[in-house]
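Incident log, structure service

09:12 report received: a user says their structure output differs between two submissions of the same chain.
09:20 pulled the input from the user's history:
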Amino acid sequence: MLIFDNGIIKAYARIFPENRKRTRLEIEQTEESLLAEAFPGHKNIAIGHRADGAPLLLNTPFPAAISISHSNRVVALAIADNSKATFHGIGIDTETFDRGSQLRRIAPRFLSPLQRSAIITDRQLLRAWTIKEALYKAAGRPGWPLREIPLPQKNVPGITIAGYGCTITDIAIPADCGLMTLAAISSPG
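09:34 re-ran on a clean worker, output below:
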């Protein structure tokens, strides 16, 4: 189902009723059905992968960028129409609320000491994780340490990374089963 549309970027998701790990086949079939929804009437569109493993769209009717995320209950795709605006990259990440205790254990690996001091609740921790994951995907910088990825200031919708403007959007997931964050990094000029 379409869960976000700003005229340039659209996000699609399938929410599963039960909280369990999906098989690779289930994830691929769900991605295919979401692609069919995103590109009705275009049967040859496929997901390929760059050398670094990042997904890319093949055989699209317009230049497009894609990001994919999946958790126990959600499979999501974000697709940017690069004929309307060109992006350096887009990224989407989704996580379920039950990840809080696991993220607390590994927080020193993905949050700077200053970032950790500002995070109090598991929901804030989960949001920090989804923001960093979405920005990591959008930046397209393999090996970029998560601790170095900035978080936006409170009540500020974006940040700047290496001169690129980045917007960060929280997307409400139906059934309130987790958090989803979309990041878009604009190309200069």
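09:41 both user submissions now match this output. Likely a transient worker issue. Closing.
09:42 reviewer note: The CA atoms of residues 96 and 177 lie 6 Å apart. The helical segments are 24-38, 100-110, 113-118, 122-139.
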